[in-house]
Amino acid sequence: MPNKVAIAIGAHPDDIEFYMGGTLLLLKKAGFAIHYLNVASGNCGSVEYNGATTRSIRNTEARAAAKILGAHFHQSLTDDLEILYHLGLLRGLAAIIREVKPRIVLTHSPQDYMEDHTNTCRLAVTAAFARGMPNFKTSPARPAADYELTLYHAMPHGLCDQLRRRVIPGAFVNTTSVHQTKRDALAAHKSQQGWLDVSQGLNSYLLAMEDKSLALGRMSGRFKHAEGWRRHLHFGFCKAESDPLSKALGRNYLINKSYEQALEDGP
Ligand SMILES: [Zn+2]
Predict the structure, then answer these.
(1) How far, in Å, from the CA of 264 to the mean position of ligand 1?
(2) 15 C-alpha to center of ligand 1: Å?
(3) Helix and strand tally (H, E) in the chain?
(4) DSSP character at residue 177
(5) What sign does the dihedral 219-109-62-237 (CA atoms) show?
(6) How far apart are CA 264 and CA 257, in angstroms?
(7) Which residues surround ligand 1, an ion (CB under 5 A)?
(8) What pLDDT, in 10s, does the model give residues 40-59?
(9) How far does residue 105's CA lie from ligand 1's centre (Å)?
(10) Which end of the chain is more exposed for a tag (fewer CB within 10 A), N or C?
């Protein structure tokens, strides 16, 4: 039965470091084995090199980043802009879930600025859902295992959805103590420094990450640096009250009371 195992599933090399890296590091400190998967290779992240060269550069960078995080690295399953909600990818991702048997799955927000992120989220949810269903075949074939698993969604880019509406986290994780390591892991994606300046005006991607974690820290009212999370509805995954991040991180985990209140009030 899985116990202290967590996996972060991001769309592109550097997404885990941007949105989930601090929480992953804290889980490791809490005794979890941590796993790292970028669904896409990052092959479109350059105007300088062709796809094959970029894929190779970014694979090397992602491996280095995973090493800094102390995470078990999993090879990407497809290329950028090809993260579609389709059966082949679902079978591949479900095989990884069955191998890893995570108790905690960290992935993107269901609402986010680009489809690779939202499709990664959808694929991760279904791959996790199918963990105990023997009639769903994975590729490569892996035996089904039914057990409790809890999914958490990271904050979207810009802390808002694709329609520009603000997204409020359900919980904050205090990443201050691991911020430097998170930054080092992000900096391992050296090729992205110039590329994100060109494509998204991110100035420096390190500063962009820092701004975001400081903004979430301010929003928490308690922490300097923070990551935000929303817990997936429990049906098909775990008990209604299961919140293993809270259990693992203790004082570094803060439930956002206004989010909980809004859940009770309804739309
Ligand atoms: Zn991305």
Answers:
(1) 32
(2) 5
(3) 10, 8
(4) G
(5) positive
(6) 11
(7) 11-12, 15
(8) 999 998 888 999 999 999 99
(9) 17
(10) C
Ligand 1 centroid to 116 CA: how many Å? 7
- Per the document, the length of the chain is 267
Handedness of CA 221, 227, 233, 236 (dihedral sign): negative
266 C-alpha to ligand 1 centroid (Å): 31
> Ligand 1 centre and the CA of 41: distance in Å?
11
192 alpha carbon – ligand 1 mean position (Å): 11
User: pLDDT at position 1, please?
Assistant: 45
DSSP state string for 39-68: SB--TTS-SSS-HHHHHHHHHHHHHHHHHH
The residue type at 148: E
- pLDDT (tens digit per residue) in 83-104: 999 999 999 999 999 999 999 9
Query: Beta strands of 169-212 (E only): which ranges?
Result: 171-174
Residue 36: pLDDT over 90: yes
3 state SS of 160: strand
- Find the 121 Cα to ligand 1 centroid distance in Å: 12
Q: How far is the CA of 193 from the centre of ligand 1 (A)?
A: 14
